[in-house]
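Propose amino acids for all 525 sites.
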């Protein structure tokens, strides 16, 4: 037996489990070797997938503790025999002495025969000389409304570990799972399936659950939302997460491809700051934003200390903080949106818009000037959306003469009137008198990379062209501007600077800009 007693007391940390799902012995052996090479802590043998595999030999060969699972079809597995056949086979499996046997709560609750047999072949503690019982609940559709009641019943059963796995339809669906992990007196496993539930797979480590399921690659995952082991370690710093980790994240929709988790977690690593930064998928709408904030802030044990806010919630963030009469940076108020929230240990909120400083610093650093040098200079801002607004606020504050060009002329007009700028018809863009050109539209952004918002023949060597688009790093506009011998500034410079300001607001430390640059460039390469 791979003595399960050796696992828990020695490590006291959340284990990383990898499912072995191959059908035949050779493929399963390859998966096991790969899991061991990737430093998995524990293997789940999905015996319902491994019908053709010589699992007793594989049990013996594995140098990691094994969870034996024989999932029936009605619980999302592949075992298609009768329940009697399954119980018989589980008794056989127990003789091969895996460290754990996973058995499903609905089958345990429904049948006294199942209860009897499972109780006889397993034990309810981690240090006995029998496989320990993991009692598991799965819901592949949603978080059931009677979850707490079911958990209470499961907690009274003779199991070593209670495992709850539910499909998270929204970020809010993580909360009952996190509450259970936080309150559970015995070792727990919680997993939110799907993209919205991914955060629970990482927060498992902060909440000290028994294990979290990972996979070797997305192709080999056994449940939706599993995060590959390498990514858990490299992006989320799995090995550094502790109960004391302070929580940060980016709120937006969509959020799966956000580069912010990689950049901020790398900055935490570089500065040895005990932070954990996650992507929070919050669907559009003020109500969804409010529910997210209220739900996560009220659970003070999550230690939420800071948020980046992105599309479509920047205006919602300003509204939420205004409704809470929180402290809001006056310039951020003018921009009409927030991209940064700072949360103090006593729950006080403060809001900022670091896009403004990020853009202005990228521009002045790129030109080798100070902000006051912008005074009196003509600057053409292309666009009249959120980014343009922050830039117009910053530029007018610095005394620049701002000319706004936008597809929807009325929007440009409104923005210009609000900040004493000038709206100019788009048709006159080629003849702009400005020598600083800032693209704050999404034109040229991936995947539409063959588009440019500015006529190439109007680009001149005495111009500075700043494209706020950062994916791709080198847009068509910047390529054409470089060909015209103009000075160019990439949106990556703004992105890094706005992120660096966030880091400084949250940690009170100087941001490791070089590290943040490297991570961003690597991700965009
Ligand atoms: P937004 O509020 O949706 O505004 C989009 C702007 O682009 C509007 O002015 C819109 O014109 C214009 N636009 C969009 N598609 C167009 C098209 N096909 N032709 C002409 N105009 C078009 O978006 P946002 O938040 O301001 O973001 C704008 C850009 O800033 C994005 O590319 C984003 O990546 C970039 N950004 C960069 C950073 C950074 O850190 N580097 C930070 C924030 C934003 P209408 O008014 O006519 O719709």
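Proposal:
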């Amino acid at each position: 037996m791979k003595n399960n007693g050796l696992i828990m007391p020695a490590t006291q940390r959340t284990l990383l489990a990898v499912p072995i799902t191959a059908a035949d012995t050779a493929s399963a052996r390859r998966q096991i070797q790969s899991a061991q090479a990737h430093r998995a802590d524990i293997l789940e043998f999905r015996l319902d997938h491994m019908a053709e595999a010589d699992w007793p030999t594989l049990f013996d060969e594995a140098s990691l503790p094994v969870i034996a699972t024989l999932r029936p079809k009605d619980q999302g597995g592949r075992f298609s025999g009768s329940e009697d056949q399954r119980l018989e086979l589980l008794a056989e499996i127990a003789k091969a002495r895996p460290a754990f046997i996973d058995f499903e709560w609905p089958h345990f609750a429904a049948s006294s025969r199942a209860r009897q047999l499972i109780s006889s072949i397993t034990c309810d503690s981690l240090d006995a000389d029998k496989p320990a019982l993991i009692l598991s609940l799965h819901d592949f559709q949603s978080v059931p409304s009677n979850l707490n009641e079911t958990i209470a019943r499961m907690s009274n059963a003779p199991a070593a570990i209670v495992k709850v796995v539910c499909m998270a339809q929204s970020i809010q669906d993580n909360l009952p799972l996190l509450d259970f992990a936080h309150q559970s007196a015995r070792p727990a496993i919680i997993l939110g399936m799907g993209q919205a539930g991914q955060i629970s797979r990482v927060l498992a480590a902060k909440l000290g659950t028994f294990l979290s399921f990972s996979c070797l690659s997305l192709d080999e995952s056994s449940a939706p939302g599993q995060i590959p082991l390498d990514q858990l370690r490299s992006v989320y710093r799995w090995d550094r997460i502790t109960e004391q980790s302070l929580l940060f994240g980016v709120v937006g929709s969509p959020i799966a491809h956000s580069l912010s988790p990689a950049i901020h977690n790398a900055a935490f690593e570089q500065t040895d700051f005990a932070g954990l930064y996650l992507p929070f998928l919050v669907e559009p709408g003020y109500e969804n934003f409010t529910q997210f904030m209220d739900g996560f802030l009220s659970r003070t044990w999550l230690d939420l200390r800071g948020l980046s806010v992105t599309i479509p919630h920047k205006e919602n963030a300003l509204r939420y903080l205004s409704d809470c009469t929180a402290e809001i940076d006056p310039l951020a108020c003018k921009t009409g949106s927030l991209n940064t929230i700072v949360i103090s240990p006593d729950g006080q909120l403060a809001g900022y818009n670091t896009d403004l400083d990020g853009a202005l610093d990228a521009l002045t650093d790129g030109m080798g000037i100070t902000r006051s040098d912008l005074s009196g200079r003509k600057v053409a801002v292309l666009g009249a959306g959120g980014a343009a607004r922050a830039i117009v606020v910053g530029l007018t504050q610095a005394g620049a003469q701002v000319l706004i060009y936008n597809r929807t002329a009325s929007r440009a007009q409104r923005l210009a009137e609000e900040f004493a700028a000038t709206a100019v018809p788009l048709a006159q863009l080629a003849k702009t008198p400005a020598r600083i050109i800032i693209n704050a539209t999404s034109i040229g952004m991936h995947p539409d990379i063959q588009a440019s918002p500015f006529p190439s023949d109007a680009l001149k060597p005495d111009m500075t062209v700043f494209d706020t688009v950062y994916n791709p790093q080198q847009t068509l506009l910047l390529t054409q501007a470089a060909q015209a011998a103009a000075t160019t500034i990439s949106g990556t410079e703004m992105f890094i600077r706005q992120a660096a300001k966030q880091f400084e607001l949250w940690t009170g430390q100087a941001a490791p800009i070089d590290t943040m640059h490297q991570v961003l460039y690597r991700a965009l390469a």
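The first strand starts at residue 15 and ends at 20. Confidence is low (pLDDT under 50) at residues 1-10.
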